[in-house]
Amino acid sequence: MTRFLAVVRRDLRLAWRQGLDSVMVVAFFVLAVVLFPFGVGPEPNILARVGTGIVWVAALLASMLALERVFQTDYEDGSLELLTLSPMPLELAVLAKVCAHWLTTGLPLIAATPLLAVLLNLEWEALAVLVPTLGIATPTMSLVGAVGAALALGSRRGGILLSLLVLPLYVPVLIFGAGAAEAALGGFSARPQLLVLAGLFCAALALCPWAAATGLRQAVD
Amino acid sequence: MTGPSTFAGRGLACVRGERPVFADVDFTLDAGGALLLTGPNGSGKTSLLRLMAGLSAPRAGELTWNGAAIAADRDAHFARLHYVGHLDAVKPLLTVAENVGFWTELRTGSPNPAGAVSEALDALDMAPLARLPARFLSAGQRRRVTLARLVGAPAPLWLLDEPTTALDSATIGRLEDAIARHRANGGMAVIASHAELAIDPAATLVLERRTASSAHSADAVS
After folding, report:
1. Would you say residue B191 lies in a domain?
2. Could you say which of A2, A6, A81 has the minimum Cβ distance to residue B55?
3. Which of A203, B7, B51, B148 could disulfide-link B29, Cβ–Cβ 3.0 to 4.6 Å?
4. Hey, of B103, B106, B135, which one would you mutate to test binding to chain A, going by the most A CBs within 10 A of its CB?
5. DSSP states of B159-201
6. B175 and B222 share a domain?
7. pTM to 2 decimals?
8. What are the tens digits of pLDDT across the range A136-160?
9. Complex ipTM, two decimals?
């Protein structure tokens, strides 16, 4: 557990000193959402109708941005070899890095969502569902993304490859995440969608660290 | 340190990119022993060290620790070795002490490695720079930071790949002292280096290009 926290702490410290990644992700998220009213016109009814979907797609794309860097810098400077060789199972190290990635990208995205809800004229009911669904879905996206990041490691144009690998895997999260807000707006309970999202999170938590660790072992071999 | 241990390899072969690098390499290393790997560029010194570390698997042959195959329990093997590769694994955004502290904490699992870190920095004369962000370090100083990891967290087996790269002669002396202390405590060291290192007594394993053979089987030294 000490070792797990040591990795989380180190990555948070690096992200804090780097500064740029989190700011960039949130800035991209806000900008992408703000662009939509220009594209579809500023009528409040249309925006309230498509707003949750816009927030979801923008959140997915924004969370991709920093994904490439989860393992890339460690791979380039040799830290990844040493993490592989540490007494801690590599799966746990992956989980620690995913935690740090979520804290530095997923959490700021959720924090920025209420502001965007105001900009898009979203109803209170939609926001009340949007924040918890993003809260369950962003860790899932970080976990799935880590597998893609591990597989894309060492390839040139890794960023594009990573998007192609990971975005299709985000589709279930998007369907149920956007569906939850839709249900809430229609006056139904969002509970089924939330439960499915929680199930997806549990599956990702169980499978993704192993898959990512296998990818990393291949990368350092 | 644990009791007397033996680290051995039998009939090791390595293939990189369809090209056989070496075959049929044997070595035995006892507690307190040292093994120098020599040979021209491309003869497989790094590949052999990576096999020993468990980073890659040998095409043929077997590595054993006290008679038990290391492939059977990789995490246990990882826990008893330090590997210094070509890359320094030094984060430019962290200070010198934070860099060494992270790896020490990761290896020992002790939450507050401050004492071990300052001792490690002293051993490589980096204590005055402990609070400096590593991005201001020279290549040799970064090398010293990565070598300080060795002293910070004890492990019975040191695998050093060109540890003297970019080091000045005074620091090479400090590294030799650290290796001598490590061996006096029953540790083992495998060192691939083109530089002359005053490490005595050590067995030497000569790797030749393409058709490599073990010129000397490393004998027990202590």
Report:
1. yes
2. A81
3. B7
4. B106
5. EEESTTTT--HHHHHHHHHHHHHHHHTT-EEEEE-SS-----S
6. yes
7. 0.88
8. 999 999 999 999 999 998 777 778 8
9. 0.84
